[in-house]
Design a protein that fits this description.
Length: about 550
């Protein structure tokens, strides 16, 4: 799906609230939006571009939709044709289901005809041949498109691409469609769809006839107007084929037959176009010049967002998700204690560089080192004083807040210790059913049971699409959730998308102060806002080395 207008450039910049990545794919720009959701241009780590459709929350909340969506995605992944956009990846179980397909660098048929008028007859014949072959592959995988229309046909330099096949079926029995919301465009529906009857592959050939007539004339065969009027004409009146090329008129009339059994299939259509079924197949130069001149714009890199803080990015260690407050200058957050050298420990700036008598550069270096040593001394004194003040008014982490079950021992003890006497690997707290909404975060050492909106000062945050932390790792299925396994799993990331936020998934989060949180996902949802629910067990890890 692409923007409805013939725009230059063809991409819509990201806005505040758009995800910086989806399923690990970096989001570059918006491509469009429709009844099912919003579509983003994204890229893999190797640079391959994808079109990622994120399903609307209204559908995501319906279990039956998710079940059907999963079925249709699985079936769609089997479709192999040069005239379809291949389904590359999908996520059904996350807070917002999504599906990624190969990006097609070209406008939609709707855009091209709206901007430039009807297509030449040779282009229309090539379009019909390519679309018929696409439908043959789609139907061969036991998928019915159900929503074939000009905006779901993209025009690439080497032929058309049919997109979004089968997805409309997932919404057929959701509460939204049962209460009157329609998925599909009335002008391109078949009579049996308009009358609410069972749909077979024949509905796609009816839509094919309407789409080809639109490409050839710029009009629809049953006219425009209110949806109810158009649907009535589709169900009960004959199409108006005025202006249709004579060589295609009879074929399109049969595609638009009221009787599904009377419509030709893909094989018959291709054979009827010419004795040599490949003679009219799309090839280089198949599009009119006005459209061909536009194609390079769809292969360009989208411009960066105009406002700082909305640029898409792949979160890495030390970065902050879009919409989150900037991280403070690196240093111990309030209430955290970094081990410092005991009083009297020598502090060495390292080997002295060779002296250069009278050198101004040498004097600057010596002055800079002295300033750094003074700064380190000030920070050490300040942190120690803050810790003493905090310890006078707040119990240690092992004394968990109300609602948390604690365990002062347990876990594995490697023989190390911390300032509060807890051994490395010991359990400091266990918290159940934490609700973390989009834009909120938790701090393991404070009160994880009650998230706050201070994302930049936290240990774990959620932005509606992914969780973010200093170090995150996912325990393999079947592995027990404990400190030792968290310690052994070193495939770290600073951000985990919705594909990992699945019920029962075990995730380890290591903070910059050395605490380890074991997260067990219990639930995800989107009402009234996107959220995750999880249990959290906090362990005492290895504190950072002084100076790190």
């Amino acid at each position: 799906m692409h923007p409805p207008a013939w725009s230059d450039p063809p991409f819509t910049p990201l806005e505040a609230g758009d995800p910086p990545d989806i399923g690990g794919y970096r989001v570059l720009a918006r491509l469009g939006a429709g009844g099912m959701g919003r579509v983003y241009l994204a890229t893999t780590q190797s640079g391959r571009r994808l079109a990622v459709k994120v399903i609307r929350p209204e559908f995501a909340d319906d279990p039956e939709f998710r079940r059907r969506f999963g079925q249709e995605v699985t079936a769609a992944q089997r479709v192999q044709s040069r005239y379809t956009a291949a389904v590359i990846d999908a996520q059904v179980d996350g807070p917002r289901p999504w599906m990624a397909t190969a990006y097609v660098p070209g406008p939609s048929l709707a855009q091209a005809v709206t901007a430039n008028g009807p297509m030449p007859e040779e282009t229309v014949r090539a379009l019909l041949t390519g679309m018929a072959e696409a439908l043959q592959a789609i139907h061969g995988s036991r998928v019915v498109h159900r929503d074939l229309k000009p905006s779901n046909v993209l025009l690439a330099g080497d032929g058309p691409r049919v997109i979004d096949f089968g997805i409309a079926r997932a919404a057929d029995t959701t509460p939204l469609t049962r209460t009157g919301m329609r998925i599909g465009s009335p002008q391109f529906m078949a009579p049996e769809q308009a009358l609410g009857r069972d749909c077979t592959t024949a509905v796609d050939y009816f839509a094919l006839g309407s789409v080809i007539f639109f490409a050839a004339t710029g009009r629809t065969p049953f006219g425009d107007g209110p949806d109810t009027a158009v649907l009535f004409r589709i169900a009960h009146e004959e199409p108006n084929l005025d202006g249709c090329p004579e060589s295609l008129r009879d074929l399109l009339r049969r595609c638009l037959d009221k009787d599904p059994e009377a419509r030709p299939n893909a094989t018959a259509i291709r054979a009827e176009l010419t004795a040599d079924a490949d003679a009219d197949a799309p090839s280089a130069g198949w599009l009119p010049d006005d459209v061909t001149r536009r194609l390079p714009a769809y292969a360009t890199t989208p411009p960066p967002p105009p406002h700082p803080g909305t640029a898409p990015h792949m979160a890495t260690a030390g970065t902050t998700p879009i919409g989150a407050p900037p991280r403070p200058y690196p240093g111990p957050p309030p209430g955290r204690v970094f081990p410092v050298p005991p009083p009297g420990s020598p502090i060495s700036p390292g080997p002295r560089p060779p002296a250069s008598s009278g050198s101004a550069a040498t004097k600057i270096v010596i002055g800079g080192v002295a300033a750094l040593l003074l700064f380190a001394l000030i920070i050490t004194v300040g942190v120690t004083a803050a810790h003493r003040s905090r310890s006078e008014r707040q119990p240690p982490l092992g004394a968990a807040p109300s609602g948390a079950a604690t365990n002062s021992g347990g876990g594995t003890n490697s023989g190390g210790g911390t300032e509060d006497g807890k051994g490395i690997g010991s359990q400091l707290g266990h918290y159940t059913s934490i609700n973390l909404s989009s834009g909120y975060s938790v701090t393991f050492a404070d009160d994880p049971k009650h998230p706050t909106d201070k994302v930049g000062e936290s240990d774990l945050s959620y932005d509606g699409y992914a969780i973010n932390a200093n170090k995150l790792s996912v325990l393999p299925p079947g592995q027990s959730g404990n400190y030792a396994n968290c310690l052994d799993n070193t495939r770290y990331a600073s951000r985990l998308g919705s594909e990992y936020l699945i019920k029962g998934k075990l995730i380890c989060a290591t903070t910059d102060s050395g605490l380890v949180g074991l997260i067990k996902i219990k639930e995800t949802g989107s009402e009234p806002t996107s959220y995750i629910m999880f249990d959290l067990t906090v362990y005492q890890g290895t504190p950072p080395t002084p100076g790190n």
